[in-house]
What does this fold into?
Amino acid sequence: MKIMTALIAAFAICTPVHAGTTAMAGLPAGITIIAAADTAMSEGEIRKIDPSTRKITIKHGELKNLDMPAMTMVFQVKDPAMLEQVQSGDKVRFRADKVNGAFIVTEIEVVK
It folds into this structure.
């Protein structure tokens, strides 16, 4: 039993911490499994890019990690260099997070 508990604990520790957590029946008390499902990137289409304000407008599908439905909205970008990677009309996969009350694109890639 000690070996099983150690293996489960090691798995929980080695799984991404920024993801959601899920307690599973049958595990020893205090053991939590980390789920990585909410780390997936979302799909969208670039509508507008404004380098002077470091903002990008994206028409996007559901943002599961932010519990947000599909819509068109303006995001700030983590790194202004991201704005040079995309053009209006590009289909993209991206990740946005809420940081200090602002919605920020932290990763973006053009879908080919």
In short: DSSP finds one helix and seven strands in the chain.
